[in-house]
Write a structure and sequence with these properties.
Layout lengths: L6 E4 L5 H12 L3 E6 L2 H13 L3 E6 L5 H15 L4 E4 L14 H29 L3 E6 L2 H5 L5 H20 L5 E8 L13 H10 L4 H7 L4 H12 L10 E5 L2 E4 L17 H11 L13 H4 L2
Length: 303
């Protein structure tokens, strides 16, 4: 996992998962552009990386606009001469049920997660193509984007769309030797600590220093550091043949999400009227309906 000749941008890397990614990339030798909206947080992240012997600079700016994307890529080029890896991690939450979610709640999340991913990857890819030496794009998705999550219309929509963009970009950039993958992390962060289902286990872990096997293995949830290794791997030359994938990681579990597939089908000559659908539905499709939301072990949910 030698990344000593690589330069990476990690958006939203002042704390939490993003900081874990930046530290791990730097630990393997990459120079890192750290990004956060708070100057002190960003500078503290840079200091943490440098104190461990790494190289890092900070760009303080909110992700979303094309201007911020240009600043991030420019910082990599101006300080280290090139760009090799773009990790789009920046995100915010504005959780509310549909009938209470405002336009502002929706737009804010879409702007940071979805548009921010688009603008940063677009800017990075322009640089990759100019350099002519390939590149790595690692977009951060979420299980909420794969299966939905109560109260997260905006977040689930953004994360699902990110995986859709990843699949498209993987095709578009294959000839340029640029790999594009989505990572769907599951980790204990400030955003997950308050989820009632996990709260008692997380509180217990603060006393013991460990999460139980039920959480680490069966739920696949761990620490940000448990996720960071996958980011470094995907940034490395060892992952040159991996592209267009949605990869889940957390705790003791590493897994691949399937791409959507047709799970049941039926045919009717001349097409389907409403009556034809009604006549065939129960026999052909009703038994193959998909569940919604994440599914957790019975020991955790009590169901």
């Amino acid at each position: 996992m030698d990344l000593s000749n690589k330069v990476a941008v990690v958006t939203g890397s002042g704390r939490g998962l993003g900081l874990a990614y930046a530290k791990e990339l730097a630990r393997h030798g990459a120079a890192v552009v750290v990004n956060d909206v708070d100057a002190e947080t960003a500078e503290n992240a840079v200091a943490t990386i440098e104190s461990a012997g790494g190289r890092a600079v900070a760009v303080v700016a909110p992700v979303g606009s094309a201007d911020t994307a240009r600043r991030l890529v420019a910082a990599a080029v101006e300080n280290y001469g090139r760009l090799d890896v773009m990790v789009t991690n920046a995100g915010i939450l504005r959780d509310k049920v549909l009938w209470k979610m405002t336009d502002e709640d929706f737009d804010a999340v879409i702007d940071v997660h979805l548009k921010g991913t688009f603008t940063c990857v677009r800017e990075a890819v322009v640089r990759f193509r100019e350099q002519g030496a390939g590149g790595r794009v690692i977009c951060i998705g979420s299980p909420a984007g794969q299966r939905g999550n109560f109260g997260q219309t905006n977040y689930s929509a953004a994360k699902a769309a990110i995986v859709g963009m990843v699949r498209t970009w993987a095709m578009e950039l294959q000839r340029a030797a640029v790999t594009v993958n989505a990572v769907c992390p599951v980790a204990v962060t400030a955003m997950t600590e308050t989820i009632p289902l996990f709260e008692p286990y997380i509180e217990q872990s603060k006393q013991t220093g460990e999460l139980p096997a039920l959480i680490r293995r069966d739920v696949g949830m761990g620490t940000p550091d448990d996720v960071a290794g996958l980011i470094a791997f995907l940034a490395s030359d060892a992952a040159a043949d991996i592209t267009g994938q949605a990869i889940s990681v957390g705790g003791d579990r590493l897994a691949l999400w399937t791409h959507p597939q047709l799970t049941a089908e039926t045919f009717h000559d001349g097409g389907f009227s409403a009556e034809d659908v009604a006549a065939t539905w129960n026999d052909s499709l009703a038994g193959r309906l998909e569940s919604v939301g994440e599914e957790f072990p019975e020991e955790l949910t009590g169901k």
